[in-house]
Specification:
Strand content: under 5%
Shape: elongated
Helix content: over 70%
Number of helices: 9
Order of helices and strands: HHHHHHHHH
Number of strands: 0
Structural class: mainly alpha
Radius of gyration: 19 Å
Length: about 200
Amino acid sequence: MPKKIDPEERKMHIFEAACRVIYQHGFEKTTLREIAREAGLSLSSVQHFFPKQKAIYMYAMDVILDKYRARMKRASRVGENGYENAVQQIKQIVHASTEEERMENDIWVKFSMMAVMNADYMEKKDKLREINVEYAESVLDMLQMEGYIKDSSRLQEQTNSLIVFLHGLVFESVIYRTLYDETVVEREIRGYLAKICAEKK
């Protein structure tokens, strides 16, 4: 009797293969056939779950977004003050400490660039923006609650500024990986936060 295939396990297996192909070759050179080869599956097996490349990309970004949320939660340190938590949460997103996280950041950057140029991914691009805003607001709210941000009237402006800073630092650390080790990334984050945070008395 043939072994029953768990659909979610198979989809995750295909997702992981797709990530490796995208990471190595970019979206432009990624095909369903290449993904199937990397996954060790037939093309028809991949198409059973993902008839079109767009379906894999959409699924991949949903999984990566979930992984980002998990990374943010892991970065929050019980007992640390809001400022140190903000540093660690931002660093967790920017600095990839494992090959898997480096792949996630790399694909995030590539997808963001593709989404700008392809109307098919407009909805996903808008979702990425919503999550970025939600994340930036949570960091700034934490800083404000503990008295590091005094002027609440500028929170919207600071939210946009943090998103721009975050995107820029992720992009730089992906493109110029050797220039941005953990120490450099943390220094950049502390420098940025020092500009927007008041010194607590």
